[in-house]
Amino acid sequence: MKGNSQKTILVTGGAGYIGSHMCVELLQTGHQVVVLDDLSNSNPKSLQAVERITQKTLTFVEGDIRDTRILTNLFETHNFSAVLHFAGLKAVGESVEHPVQYYDVNVNGTLKLVDAMAAAACKTLVFSSSATVYGIPEQMPISECSPTAAINPYGRSKLMVEEVLRDLYASDPTWRISLLRYFNPVGAHASGEIGEDPHDVPNNLMPFISQVAVGRRDQLNVFGDDYGTPDGTGVRDYIHVVDLAKGHLKALQHLADTPKLAIHNLGTGNGYSVMDAINAFERASGRKIPYQVVERRAGDAATSYADPRKANQELGWQAEYDLERMCADAWRWQSNYPNGFRD
Ligand code: NAD
Ligand code: UFG
């Protein structure tokens, strides 16, 4: 039998870093939540922690978004008002080594998902896109009309999905689709009970710094200090993962008004360098972060930060937390659970 609630949301990839924070915000705003995740890059303990934080329960289905049988069954069982689609693979280097796998999970997985949604007449979708679709941007800040130019298979998979969803909307304008281009999500829930928990060596700056601070790694490699930035290191727009999750709630409200396909950057509009991040994390943790400067990482832009005005004007959303708070919250999680969910 179908559930009665009009506010049941399907969260694909909900056990992951951003998805678990999203589940907290959804449950705390009165939604019912069903998570579909194959746990390929997450741990079910994240969902137990979500239930502890919120004192509410959610439904977890372990499975692959490419599995049509599971999708059909899910849409027959529940009356979803919307789907928040986080499930996917996200490591740039790995995408270069295994492009077919990336296109299969990220692109084919989304095709399977929207097919099942259409069959169930559930036509409200929020998709996790990325600032990576802007490639090496020429102008700062980056607005939604800046040219797109993905430069690796991961980025191309995001851009392909954006194009698929635009075509879908053009073919049937009763869809309500939000493409959210995240800048650099970092930090953790203030409880310190959920956070980023990379299975392998972290690719990204903040989880690497955090693992150095907690003693899991000896030192950070700073990828280049000869960029044309104030201190020579790369500049990024770090955004607190809770601010990011709140942006999704605003996007859902925006979609509720009228059918549309909307594109929004989710960033703070502020750029911080690698050295700024190291210094902020040292202050938050009281620990020294040893580092050495090494060669630039191939494919890195010198600077990337958002023009967040469109999200502000159209969604009524704006990031609240600053870099100090992002580091303080990341450190609370990392110091509570030095080995992440394996502790
Ligand atoms: P994550 O790896 O922590 O979460 C993704 C989740 O999807 C994981 O729980 C994983 O187990 C699940 N998953 C992967 N393949 C699946 C499949 N075939 N079927 C079902 N579940 C599957 O990553 P995240 O940082 O939370 O990212 C969430 C989304 O946001 C991704 O689509 C990512 O590309 C996008 N994004 C992330 C960042 C970032 O820096 N974290 C930036 C921009 C965009
Ligand atoms: N950096 C280091 N050392 C590290 C890791 C990173 O110096 O060990 C530097 C990078 O060179 C860059 C900055 O820290 O200047 C941020 O790097 P991240 O890897 O944390 O973030 P990116 O902006 O390079 O990429 C991330 C995701 C991409 C996504 C992009 C935009 O990894 O998937 O943000 O959303 F596309």
Can you give a write-up of this model?
With 343 residues, this protein is of the alpha/beta class. The chain has a domain at 8-187 and 239-268 and 307-319: Rossmann fold, CATH 3.40.50.720. It has eleven helices and 14 strands. It has helices at residues 17-28, 45-54, 68-77, 92-97, 99-119, 153-171, 205-213, 241-257, 274-285, 309-315, 323-336; strands at 8-12, 32-37, 59-62, 80-85, 124-130, 176-182, 184-186, 220-223, 235-236, 238-240, 260-266, 272-273, 291-294, 303-304. Strand 5 (124-130), helix 6 (153-171) and strand 6 form a beta-alpha-beta unit. The protein is globular and about 55 Å long. Nicotinamide-adenine-dinucleotide binds at residues 13, 15-19, 37-42, 64-66, 86-90, 105, 109, 128, 130, 182, 185.
Report strand %: 15-25%
Query: Can you name the CATH architecture of the domain at 8-187 and 239-268 and 307-319?
Result: 3-Layer(aba) Sandwich
- State the helicity in percent bands: 25-40%
User: What small molecules are bound in this structure?
Assistant: nicotinamide-adenine-dinucleotide, uridine-5'-diphosphate-4-deoxy-4-fluoro-alpha-D-galactose
- Taking pLDDT < 50 over at least 5 consecutive residues as the criterion, the unreliable ranges are 1-5
Oligomeric state of this protein = single chain
CATH-derived topology of the domain at 8-187 and 239-268 and 307-319 = Rossmann fold
* Secondary structure: number of strands: 14
CATH superfamily of the domain at 8-187 and 239-268 and 307-319: NAD(P)-binding Rossmann-like Domain
